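**User:** Everyone, produce a chain:

**Assistant:**
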Amino acid sequence: MTTRRTRPRPFGRALCAMITPFTADGAPDLDGARKLAAHLVAEGCDGLVLNGTTGESPTTTDAEKTALVRAVREAVGEGPAVVAGVGSASTRHTVELARAAEDAGADGLLVVAPYYSRPPQPAVAAHFRRVADAVGIPLMLYDIPGRTGTRIEPETMLALAAHPRIVAVKDCAYDLLGSAKVIARTSLAYYSGCEELNLPLYAVGGSGFVSTVANAAPRPMRAVLDAHDAGRTAEAAELNGLTLPLAELMMASGLPGTVTAKALLGALGLPAGPVREPLQPADRDTAGGLLAVYEELARLFPA
């Protein structure tokens, strides 16, 4: 009989890709961020990923990103993981953001593949090693070629796994075979970044998820993993199916997840505020539809 390998979970299992709340005039709402972060942790999130795409990183300044990390760190204390997005198209700029996030109290860094310039794989690997060598906290690599234009190929992942501070992957590559191969051959912790793949990736050895939908529905999203961990795999599949209508409406309706998450959080009376241009807010009908689907899901997962 073979020994079952323990799942690596450097940042926990259930992570929320948290929005960045803004005030009505578009300034960062740090008090709102503290309130939302504390709420998400109380509702079952093991960690929070800040300053990612859902957090509107393309339109927030470096100073705003650092202030958000400090505020959330203060709000949640030392228990929950705080992972800071620091990706950019420039290696030098990414290193600057990484050092600032570390100084602000982040436990880890989310580092996306360099985008737009489409560097070859050796350059992609050199980029990640340069960032990892510049800090003392661990990295979660972000593989999302649909946005960056550049894949972190499985062979590159295998090579990067040897670095002591490269410990995790946020997986949005839609390549379950490739991910499963890396999971089987390394100790990298794979976190699903696509809600529809949360359970499939978990079933082949993934470590959890980084979810935009968890801004509004952290308990239902976590419940799927809880059931699977308890050996109730049929129940996990059933619970996963219950989350899909909200996940589809938030993530596959033609609007960015930031827009739908902020619309729903606003309808629920939680800190959100407007989005920054070029994003535009959801209209009233869309917000109402999101709320109706959310309320049905909440009815199925009572507190």
Remarks:
- The mean pLDDT is 97.
- The longest strand covers residues 166-171.
